[in-house]
Write a structure and sequence with these properties.
By secondary structure, this protein is mainly α. It has a domain of about 90 residues. It is built from five helices and no strands. Helix 1 packs antiparallel against helix 3. The longest helix is centred in the middle third of the chain and has 34 residues. The two termini are about 35 Å apart.
Length: about 120
């Protein structure tokens, strides 16, 4: 894809990266690590049940992991833009339809290959 075609996708990905970084910083308590931020966040809440605190802590870890995974996908898409392979399925080499890229600009695969990938990686 030409730079002219990828420019809007790059802009969208850069904005998405900024949002994710801000969300992760909020979850992680700024510069401290995720576990330390969680301890500080939940350490002083003696009135809540232990089960409730553990559930909330697990939710924070899950959100952090999800946003980290999404950030990795955004960074990979930005690298594909830079190396000229953006918009090409990483599995089969077919062009990814523009409508799919508009919906999910970080996607590395066409719909068919994404379906195969999800089937192969079901937990």
């Amino acid at each position: 894809m030409s730079t002219q075609i990828t420019a809007p996708f790059k802009k969208q990905l850069v904005e998405q990266r900024s949002t994710l970084l801000a969300q992760l910083a909020g979850l992680r308590g700024g510069t401290m690590g995720r576990a330390q931020a969680s301890d500080e966040h939940f350490g002083g809440q003696k009135e809540d049940s232990r089960a409730q605190l553990e559930t909330e802590r697990e939710l924070e870890f899950t959100l952090d992991a999800r946003e980290s995974t999404e950030l990795d996908a955004v960074e990979a898409a930005l690298r594909r833009i830079e190396d000229g392979s953006y918009g090409v399925c990483t599995d089969c080499g077919a062009d990814i339809p523009a409508a799919r890229l508009h919906a999910a600009p970080e996607t590395p695969r066409c719909i068919a290959c994404q379906g195969k990938f999800e089937l192969a990686h079901r937990a």
